[in-house]
Hints:
By secondary structure, the chain is of the alpha/beta class.
Amino acid sequence: MKKKILVTGGAGFLGSHLCERLLNDGNEVICLDNFFTGNKRNILHLQENPYFEVIRHDIIMPFFIEVDEIFNLACPASPIHYQFNPIKTIKTSVAGSINMLGLAKRIKARILQASTSEVYGDPQVHPQTEDYWGHVNPIGSRACYDEGKRCAEALFVNYKNQNNVKIKIARIFNTYGPRMDPHDGRVVSNFITQALAGEDMTIYGQGKQSRSFCYVDDMIEGLIRLMNTDDSFTGPVNLGNPNEMSMLELAEIIRELSGSGSGISYMDLPEDDPLQRQPDISLAKKELQWEPQTPLKTGLEKTIHYFRELIASQ
Ligand code: NAD
Ligand code: UDP
C-alpha cells in the first residue's frame, strides 16, 4: 500500500538516501529541510518523480500536514556543523522533536527518531548495548548534539507513555557513503578528499581511537525495518556495523583503495572525542532480522568513486 511519508532532514546525506528508497518502494514522500547542511544536489534526481515533494521549512517552527509516517532526521550531524550554532542544534533536537511529536500525536502517525551513538558519549562499556546509559559531558563542546539527542529520546518515550504516540528510536552509529558532504569534517570524507588530492591525511590525536563504520544502504534498510516493526517495539535500538577499527587503520585502507601517495599529519585531538565506539547489534538482529551486508572495502570503493566524480564535476 502506498504510504505518505514525511522525511525531515530529507535533503541531507542519510535523508536523501531514505527519500530515494521510500520512493522506489512505491511511497509518496515529502522531504522537509531548512538546507542548513542539506543540499539540493542530493535530491535533484528525485524531483521528476510526481510522488516527491520538497518543502523548505525549519522544524523548530510548527508544521502541519497529514501523513502516515514521519522519519525525523533533521539535525546537523558532524561536529563542525553542530558546533557552528550550538543553541540552534539543541533547539533542533528539542523544539524540533516536540513539533514533530505533536504532529504525530494529532495525526496518529508513526514517528521514528534518528538518535545517535553519541548518547553513549565517551563510553565506559564496550561494545555499547542499548541498556548502557552513557558517559556524556553535559557542558562540553559536543553536548549541544549529545544532550539534545538524549533529551529528544526522553521526549519520544514520554509522548509514547503519556499520549500513546507510536514511536521508534534508532541509535545510529557512524555511517558513510555517497552524498556525504566533502566539507563537513567527518573522518571518512576528510580522508577520501585528502587522499584524492594527494594531501596529507589528518589524524587527530595518535589515531588509536576507534569507530565502526556502516555503509549507508545498510543503514537505510535498518531504519525502514525499524519503522515497520509492531507498535509494541519502540527501541532504542543500535544500528551500525560492528566492524571496529582505529583511525590509523582507516587512513591506511583509504590510502590504498584510492591509490594515493598521501602522507599522514597528526593534529590535536578535539575535546571530548570518544576513545572507542562499537555497536552491539544483538537487539537489531533479533527484532529487525537486520545486520549490515556491505563489506567496508565495497562501501569505501563506492564512496571514493562518488568523491572522484564530485571533484571532477566542480
Ligand atoms: P546531514 O547534516 O547530512 O543531514 C541533516 C539534514 O537536516 C540536512 O539536510 C539539514 O539541512 C537538515 N536540518 C538541520 N537542521 C534542521 C532544522 N532545524 N529544520 C529542518 N531541517 C534541518 O546529516 P546526516 O548524516 O544525514 O544525519 C541525519 C540524521 O541522522 C541526523 O539527525 C543525525 O543526527 C543522525 N545521525 C547520523 C549519523 C551519521 O553517521 N551520518 C550518525 C548518528 C546519527
Ligand atoms: N578524525 C580524524 N581526522 C579527521 C577527522 C576526524 O582523525 O580528519 C577522527 C575524530 O577525532 C574522531 C574520528 O575520526 O576520533 C571520527 O570522527 P567523525 O567526526 O567522523 O565522527 P564522530 O567523532 O562524531 O564519531
